[in-house]
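I'll show a sample.
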Amino acid sequence: MEPQALPAAAVLHYWEERARRFGANGAGLAAVCSFGMPLFYNRAIDLSQRLALRRWLRVPPGTRVLDIGCGVGRWSLRLAGRGAAVTGVDHSATMIAAARRRAGSRGLGEQCRFLVQDLATLDAGAKYDLVLSVTVLQHILDADALRASLQRMARHLDRDGRLVLLEAAPARRSARCDSATFRARARGSYLELFEQCGLEVRAMSGVDPAPFRTWLLPYLPAFSPGLRLVALAAATAASLPIDVLFGRALPARSWHTVFVLGHARSPHAH
């Protein structure tokens, strides 16, 4: 039985609280990666995501970027530092405030614009060369809101632009890590949705094929705090070399997937 989804107001409160508690701490990973996990665990997640996205984030100066679910600005600031003109969007005002502070402290305030908006009704007022969304759709549990969100992303994508998504999308549906704010949908369900929204896959790669952390997570609540920390450290240490060395090459075994999308080409186009 799937966990019951939280009401929209409760979901927003959940992200606001995470931003208040962790948004100003270090890189803010606890606000945007795995909630309640130790720093080494979230650093491993951050590393595997950076490696998976590295190829697609090498943008020339002046690239127009829309960072969906930008959180505290983890990807927005990286892209702005390469000369991109970045618009970051998040439904949490506290996340956006943290992103603005971080951009200002790094001298990137003029290259970044941050908006508080809900993705399902997004209107950022422009078209973009790159639309980036990292672990956002996996937190939208309502099917209608999910479709509307993807349609909004597509509307903001320039004709020849690139939409890059990184989402929990295993080859087979697995509910073992699902919660009231998270769903790991089967990869095929995303592929069907992309087609329905007028998008086509240009590339696809893996992120984290090592299975140890996802095997462990459902059992953690029953562990004592000390045993929990030891188990997380062991799972992270076992996963890291596999994910770092083979993550991109093993999409069929990966828990998360990078989807690189574009507008569907006309069947008569040359």
Summary: The chain has nine helices and seven strands. The chain has a mean pLDDT of 94. The radius of gyration is 18 Å.
